[in-house]
Amino acid sequence: MDYSTWQLSDVIVTQTKAKICILNSNGLPISFIPTETTIRAPFGPSRFDKTQTTGRQSLEFRCNPEILESFARFDEWAVAYLTEHSERIFKKPLTKEQIVEMYRSPISQKGENPALLRTKINLDPGGTCRFWTPEGQPRDPPDSWKSAEFVPHLTIRNLWITGAMCGFCLDVNDLQVHDAPPKCCPF
User: Fold this and answer.
1) What is the DSSP-derived secondary structure letter of residue 141?
2) Does a structural domain hold residue 39?
């Protein structure tokens, strides 16, 4: 990823009163496609609020070394950029230590468990995520999210800001799906 042209817009307050800053490179969205290997989504898509009717859901991918390395560099860039532009974005000067305290990386790891990449996916009919076979043909979402493997096409959309936290929203635009081979009876 080349960070030299990356920039965040001024803060925008959405209709839902959320504060965001759009990330772009020369006016274009920032895309990321891991190329090393397929990855898994061990829990499948989920919603925090089970009563919500929208198709926008969270989807966590198990990280491979390429993703870990790419997002470690991304986090370094984000902390440096947010520190340098803190007065414009947060309306007050903040130190690097203060930014590190409030910044939430797209990578999460709990204890000895493998690291996960947090993303958002829109599964509404006609939603923004498209699904593809390994041969490049359109297809439906996988029947079993937990057993399939994926190559995601992600957009690092925007910085979200709440009272004491901030982080980046990664949207899944396209998902190449590698279905697990059918299980055979071993007897």
Assistant:
1) P
2) yes
